[in-house]
Structures are given as structure tokens and as C-alpha cells.
Automatic annotation (TrEMBL):
Primary residence: endoplasmic reticulum
Cited Pfam families: CAF1 (PF04857)
Job description of the protein: 3'-exoribonuclease that has a preference for poly(A) tails of mRNAs, thereby efficiently degrading poly(A) tails. Exonucleolytic degradation of the poly(A) tail is often the first step in the decay of eukaryotic mRNAs and is also used to silence certain maternal mRNAs translationally during oocyte maturation and early embryonic development. May act as a regulator of multipotency in embryonic stem cells. Is a critical factor for proper spermatogenesis, involved in pre-piRNAs processing to generate mature piRNAs.
Protein's name in the database: Poly(A)-specific ribonuclease PNLDC1
Family: Belongs to the CAF1 family.
Lineage, broadest ranks: Eukaryota, Metazoa, Chordata, Craniata, Vertebrata
Topological relation to the membrane, as annotated: Single-pass membrane protein
Localization per Swiss-Prot or TrEMBL: Endoplasmic reticulum membrane
GO biological process, one term: nuclear-transcribed mRNA poly(A) tail shortening
Organism: Toxostoma redivivum (California thrasher)
Domain of life from the UniProt record: Eukaryota
Key words, A-Z: Endoplasmic reticulum, Exonuclease, Hydrolase, Magnesium, Membrane, Metal-binding, Nuclease, RNA-binding, Transmembrane, Transmembrane helix
A single Gene Ontology CC term: endoplasmic reticulum membrane
InterPro entries in UniProt: CAF1_poly(A)_ribonucleases, RNase_CAF1, RNaseH-like_sf, RNaseH_sf
Molecular-function GO terms, alphabetical: metal ion binding; poly(A)-specific ribonuclease activity; RNA binding
Amino acid sequence: MEVGAESFARCLPRLRRRILRAAFVALDMEFTGLHSTSLQNNEPSLFDSPAERYVKARQSVQHFTLVQLGLAIFSKENSNKYVVHAYNFFLFPSTLGIRDIEFTFSASSIQFLSHYGFDFNKFLKDGIPYMNEEQEKILKQHLLAGTWKVCSTSCADRDVLKKAIDEVTSWITAAKEEDTMILQDLNGYHMLEVQLVLRQALQNVWTEPLGDKKVMVKKVSPEHRQLLENSSYDPCQKKLILLSARGFTNLFQILVKAKKPLVGHNMLMDLMHLHDKFYRPLPESYEEFKRNIHNLFPVIIDTKTVTKSVQKKCLFPRVSSLLEVYTVLCSSNLNPRGPPCPVIALASGCSRYAEKESPHEAGYDAFLCGSVLLMSAHLLLCRSTDDAVDAEPSFSQYLTVLAEHVNKVNFIRGGVSSINFSGKDAPCRHPPALVVHVRGWPGLTERQIYQEFKARCRFDVRRLSKNQFILLSNKHKQLILRDYRHHPHLQVSVYRHWRHSPSVNCLLQISGIVALWSLLAFALGGARSC
């Protein structure tokens, strides 16, 4: 279930086979932060259009990184049963390259992860490396030129390297050809870096990784060394170094080639990190980002948009978190007359999730995601027709009933309900707004308006004119209108575009001036004719 750098290469062939046999794949991610507070006006707002939100989120994605990616592979084994293989991948940016990677931690995000038992040592010490196409291109150039380096600048890394070199140089003077020694306790890139440095410094040694954090060093003749270097079994060939440095990106490319339906929950940030960390740096253009994601993953399903539909069409309680939705779907008899929902069985290596809830562990949330999708799709299929539903519906039947939700990713607090990755977004429709007219309170700012109203409701505020502000909120409007009816400085009313819009007011003023001049000209012209 838990995969780090040490075991990733061994797991990759098995992961590839399982993905190719899968009906669909669900994913979830945990980050070092969500919204950067160091950037001005970066908080999501009800005023945001999808393009405006993308600009904000792009800046945050560039600041933060992934710490864990969860993958749940759902395979239809027989009849009406899906078997799930769930994985937690600890990730850490590749340190093999010419440029060191920088990223930011949000204190609240780290506190949140810590509260749910996240293992930061696995992230830091055994995180699987990854890189995007741009970083890979730079590394290739430096590997060919021989100017590569490992960006390990800590004293601990230097000490490991120095200790290994000292051990080998002390041993080699008395060693005979074909003699060997073993270097112990080498983690991650230390395995690769020690071998490359020793080979570069000493022309009469050869190295081979033994696994279990060990490297064998052998004394050889220069001629034997040359033969070994040209062997296809050399673990330090440039293409193998690149394969190792690419790390998790190898699995990302398997997912892209497999073109399996990709399932997530509130997955906009997940998709942006996928693009930025494993494919290419996020483009400035929102539309280009949408096109790229659709080319990579032609079928995306966000369970947040699906469950919104289930809540409208079925007697489904209003719950917010993914775990709450899963619990309701498992415990409620929402479909008493239809065929039973498919059996969802965790594979033997993932049984911990069947025994204990693990919220905000990426593999567990990915498992919840895929399970919610199957149960919701089954419920919608049974409600979509009066005819009898097959006792064992195929996944393609579920995709058909989910068609209106495919490639629609939930949009949190904004001008649209979802982002359409396979076409144009719906026009922005904001909730009815309130306008605040300020009297006798000079210099009032958006921040002060926010502080004034924040105790009554969650809302967003923007300045409309020198003495007017717009408030957008999904609820409690009547409460605010009532409480501020007799306020000495703030007059609150429902926003009317024709009355409060600066552009409409400007147009009316210009029209009034034009009409006045026309009337005056007519009056003066009439007076002359008399």
C-alpha cells in the first residue's frame, strides 16, 4: 500500500499491468499548501470567473508541492464485483539536476496533515523523485555533457559521500583485482551519487547496487572496466540514470498512455499539480491548460459534481466531506427496488482500509472517491429508467448515465458550478448581490467592510465606487438587510444593475447630457425661426 523511492522501481511493472486491466483509476493528493497568503488577492472569491481562478491557483501551485499521491485502481474481476488496489506514494522533487527545486510550506496545511498522522520522515527520506518534461530536457543535456550534479547540499549528504569515498580509497591500495567490498546504509540518491563519484575518481573500480541500501565495489583492470561500461547491464547508464531521476513521472506516463477514466473529488488543484509536476509547467493561458489536460486524460469524472446531482435527484442528506458521502451511500437504502450495488472489495494488501478509516490519507481518499463514483452511478442508472436494470451493469453503462458529468470539474465558490474540460464553460452566474452605500465614514476600505460583516455570513467584497461596495454571499442576505436598515453610516440594499452599475450610471449621465443639449438646441432653433 505504501510506496517510497526504495520500492518504487520494483512495483512499477505490476502497477502498469494493473492499470492496463483497470476499469478506471481514482486519485487524491496531499500538498504542502493550498492558497498562498504571500500573494496579494489570491484567495478564491465568488466574483472569480474560471480564468481568474486559474490565474490565482496557478501561482499557488508554483509555490507548493505534493507530499503524497493516492491511487486506487478499480478492476472488474467478475460479474458484479470490483477489486481495488490502493496505493500511497510519498513524493519528493528530483534532486538530480542542475537546478535545485524550491517550494513552500503552509503552517496550517502541515498542521492539518500532522493531525491526521502524516509521516513527514517518509516524505523527506523516502520520497519518490519526479520531474516534468522541461526539467527532464535540462537533465538530458547535462548528462550528455557530463555536467550533471546531485543537488544535495546538506552536511549529512556530504558526510555520507565523504565516508564512502574514504572507505574505498583506504581499501583499494591493498586490494587485488576482482576483490570486492560492500558499502552499507545508502539511501535514495546516495546509491547513485556514490557510484558515479567513485567511477569518476577511480579508473580501476566498478560498482553495482545490491539492494537493501548496499553497493558493491570491485577492483578491476582498466580494460575490464571499459568492457563493463559498454555492457547493457550497467546500472549507471545515462538512460537508467534518467529513468531513476524521472521516478513517479514514469507512472504518470503509464496513466496517460492507458487513457483510463480518471476519477477525483474537487479535483481542480489535483489536475493543476499533475500538469505542473509531471507534464509541463502550467501555461499562462487557462484555455491551453484545459486543452492539455483533456489530451492527457480524455475522460475525467469529479465525484463532487456527481454527488451534487445525486442529492438533487434522490432523498439524499446534504453532507459535505467525501467520507460523509461514502458513509451515507453505504448505509442508506436509497434504491430499495433496483438490483444491488456492485461489490467493492479491497485487495488483500489493502485490507487496512476495510478495518479502519484513514481520512486525508491519499490512498484511502482515492479509494473513497472510486467507491462513491460506483455507488452514485449505480443509483443514477436505476433512477434513470422505469425499465428493469441489468443485474450486473457494465462500467460502460455507468459512463453513459454519467455522461452529463464527464469532464465537468467542480468549481468551488465562483461564477460557475463547474469547469468543462471538453468544451466551453457555462456563462458566469453570480448569486444576487448586496450593495453597501457608505455615508459619513470617509476612507473605508474593502478590508474594513469585510470585518464589519464577517460575523454574520461568509461573503466576498469588492469596491464598486468611492462610496459603494458589492457583497456576494450564498445566504443570510435577509438578515443583513434587516440588521442594517437603520445603521447611521452603512445603507444596505439589493444590487440592481441598472441602478448601481458605474457603467450604466455613466451611460445615463452621458445620455442625459446629450438629451439636454438636443433639447436646448431644439429650443434655440425654434426661437430663431419665430
